[in-house]
Amino acid sequence: MPNGAYHAITSGTTQAARSRKSQLRFFEWAACRALLFAAALGAGCFEPVADAQSASLKLDDAIASASQIASAAPPKAEPGAALTLGPGDVVAVQVYGRPELSSTIYIGDDGTIRMPLAGAVNVSGLSPAQASQRVAEALKEGNFLVNPQVSIILSQFRSQQVSVLGDVRAPARFPIESRTTVLDLLALAGGVNESGGNVVYLIRPDNSGHVTRYPIDLKGLSDSKSAIPTLTLRGGDTVFVPRAEQFYIYGEVTTPNMYRIEPGMTVLQAMARGGGVTPRGSENRVEIKRRLANDRYVTITPQLTDPVMPNDVIRVKQRIF
Q1: What is the distance between the alpha carbons of residues 186 and 163, in angstroms, rounded to a whole number?
Q2: Angle, helices 3-42/52-71, rounded to nearest 10 degrees
Q3: 128 with 154: CB under 8 angstroms?
């Protein structure tokens, strides 16, 4: 084949490949933009406009708003932060070779500890290792010691506390360590009561005083398909355990009472939860009094496979014959 023809074919093939690559890049860009547009539209961030230029500007604003909404998702499990000191904590300070400088010190409300010779040293917000360096620098800068070796051990941790409220055995405030999780806090509170819900809420304030509530599903403890909550707590957090959704059953059942609704519970399972139907009762004579959205009640005759709704009142009647 002549060299000119070979170069022409090679050049044409290269140009065609470049053209296809450019087309693929354009389609990828268009697909990503379309997905962002759909997310913005679903979030209510986009409104129809009259001209194309305004529509383009509106689309960019909508995409930016959708990105902000996505960033407001519940916090993921994060590595345990370093333990930080604060007012109310008690630390044991040891200076190697100088036992007269070693002591157990209370961190004051201003976040300082009173060290012999060095005076007030601010350690608030520092880890014990960082506080040790701060004290060593204070002793060195004051020309009290040439090369001080200082170690600080946390004796009592009171500055970082969290609260647990709601349907737990022992609601209270607890001091937390650097890697205390939601499950650790529930264990400190004695665990969730039988009537407690599977979804608990983490209430977390930020520096500006704004409070955000994050739902945390506890079903991962018994369901391998759900994730186990491992979120690390921070000082000032509150965990609230609401009461589980419940139903009521009475009439011709062995143990009429109020019970929690399990996921996917049917009317037949609800009767079994109530101890089963008595010899005088009938599974075919069941009625449910159900509250509607407008707080009105209706009475229905369900099938045994119908789901039980929150606050349902189930009555099992006597058999006719």
Answers
A1: 10
A2: 70
A3: yes
Task: Say if residues 89 and 79 touch (Cβ distance below 8 Å).
Answer: no
Same domain, 121 and 177: no
Give residue 186's domain range.
Answer: 161-241
Picking from 124, 156, 188, the residue at the C-terminal end of a domain is 156
Query: How far is Cα 249 from Cα 283, in angstroms, rounded to an integer?
Result: 13
Say whether pLDDT at 263 is over 70.
yes
Distances (CA, A) of 244 to 34, 46, 259: 41, 38, 9
Distance CA 139, CA 145 (A): 6
The mean per-residue pLDDT over the stretch 226-234 comes to 77
Sign of CA dihedral 21, 23, 27, 33: positive
* Number of neighbouring beta carbons within 10 Å of residue 2: 7
| CA distances to 23, 49, 61, 272 from 36, in Å | 20, 18, 11, 49
Ranked by mean pLDDT, which of 4-8, 25-29, 246-250 comes out on top? 246-250
Mean pLDDT to the nearest integer, 71-98: 73
Return the beta strands (E) in the chain as ranges.
90-95, 103-106, 112-115, 119-122, 150-156, 161-166, 172-175, 199-205, 211-217, 238-241, 246-251, 257-260, 281-291, 297-300, 313-318
Radius of gyration of the chain (CA): 33
Count structural domains, the chain: 4
Q: For position 230, which CATH number holds? A: 3.10.560.10
User: Is 96 among the domain residues?
Assistant: yes
Q: In what order do the strands lie in the sheet with 257-260?
A: 257-260, 246-251, 313-318, 281-291, 297-300
Angle at CA of residue 173, ends 183 and 182, nearest 5°: 15
Which pair of structure tokens corresponds to residue 43? 């979030």
